[in-house]
What does this fold into?
Amino acid sequence: MRYLHCQQFEIDTHHQQLRCAGLVVPLAPKVYDLLVYFFQNPQRVISKDELMEQVWAGTIVTDNAISRTLVKVRRALGDDPKTPQFIVTVPRKGYCLTQVVTASEQPTQKNISTLELPHRRATTRKTVFSLVAVLLVGIGMLAAQYFAPSTLHTKSIKPLTRDVGQELFPAMSPDLTRIAYTNVSAQGASTIVIEQLGDHQRVVLSLPDWQLSRLAWSPDGKQVAFVAKSAEQCVIYKAALTQVDNVQSWQRLSACGEQSAPHLVFSPIGKSLFFNDRVSLKQGYQIFRLDLATGKKEILNQPITAGKGNYAFDIAPNGKSLVMLNSEFAPVTAIYTLSLDGAVLTKTGQLNYLMRSVVFSHDSESIVHPSPHPAYELWQSSLAGEKRAVVASNTSRVKHMQRVNNGQDYVFVSYLLNRDLVYHSFFEQTHMRSQVVEQNNSSVMDYLPALANHSSSYAFVSKRSTGSEVYLVQKTDDTMTAPMAISSFEHQVKLYHLAFSFDDSKLLVLADNQLFVVDIATKTMRQLPLNNQSIQAASWQSNEKLLFSSLIDNRWHMMLFDLTNDELTDFVQGYVGGLYLPAQQQYALVAQQSGQVVLLSAHAERMRDLPLVCQPALSERKLNLHRFEQGVLCPTQNSTQIQYASIDDERVSQWGIQPETLDFSVNKHGILATKMTQAIADVMVTISP
It folds into this structure.
């Protein structure tokens, strides 16, 4: 049967539409699929396993993804999960659509004024408001589509790759016959794969001790450019497609910064290569144009490059303009366009979140980008950043989108990362803690662990509630509490580090150039008044004072922030981060050039250097230096091992425990670390009708 009817709602299975009183209610493809399955299986309990098999067959999915999609289904029906009239949750069993569903070949002809609502004839005000909200959303979406001719409709998607490892940075060839992507193995090796879409024959680009990635196609598809990085170098190469597997044929175009991850775009006529680059972490990204005939490199007209700088850009399909994303230190985005003929720079929008990447839409007048972090959708927005439509909706997170040269579609990466916390005790009698930690892990990301200094309590970040939030597990008498959310961010932010104060009364939370402090007793959190400032390597100097590093005029400054009066003090320069050592009443700071750990007095006087070099000193914004016993420890030799340096006798030795990642916390009882349990990233493509 074509039509499925349930109360005031009707599904047209031919056109894949949900209608309410004759008006279309816009749905993302997977939301529609889930709703149809409920309508096809009414008045019976459906388990999550059944939904995974029937609705998400062959697609990466977690319990969290099902829950998010179900929220959207309920929203479309105007259903309140606290007092559901349509879909109820059956504890430990699944879900059930409680209403009767009928099927027919003809649509219903009910008038909206005569609709009888599902739970009773005397409709409650709450349900009326829900129905009106659904209708207004439908009317608004229809009006937006009518008055914006270039607005896209949500597209279906399908996978292009299902390899072992992670497939990143996809790029479809201009003739649509090949897909190129970066393949990252479980061991971390990064190669470029160019695969024929017809017979799936492949060419793999690899170079010993180098990481290859970010391939871009020339407009005629006869040449490619890509990035190669080693421990000491970053190089942009160009090669002819017919000889791309011959390393000797690669042409070196330009060097790039060791800390850079350049984005590459050929000009529409193929005479130039555009790329962005940053010389060091001190400097933001700048965008360059390289003449492929002469090798001349010129910097484009662009906004100032403090902070992240101009970290993402794209060229319009018509070749007339370039769009760039600019961010300084606050997690906000400025959108600029640059006319390529007259070099006129125009600021077109300002957003209160960090847009991760951008491409022009096929119309050359709007942009496509991931939704705000954590992104599960691709959005089409105006150049002012105003959302117009959902291009694609996914149950896993999305990134790395690119246009397909058919005037309609896009490729992107669908990825799923799952990290768990693991606890290793230094004493056998505390083995119970490892079991508690294991039981508190979720099926999604649990990371950034922080151990309390004087108890078994710990904090961590989890995405079990869709976005990143901070959770606390407390020791009470002889038991441990269940994880409790102690943050509720108004705008989703990316988090980098947690740390308990010395007396465990407070918790420091480091986000995108933002600092928050949680009062453990009251479970209240406040954001510190540090606006548009670079913030890295945050730690505690006392129970009422914070220590962090900041880039000011391209120089590293160690800053002190007093929580009692919100006073900020410039303490010392030339260090990327550090810790205060209460027992010695000294600072252990990491020198910006050498990575050497240096001991300073409480008055910033240099006392002596420890024979310990931290490599890397920072992982994103997190400091990799830890207090332990009567010394400090940090990774050395590019993360291959963790070494311990005694403050008293300056002896350096390999630490007895080598965690899987640098994301760990240690106290006198043990170490709480993260491990990767699942890392999947596949290339997807949208499908236009």
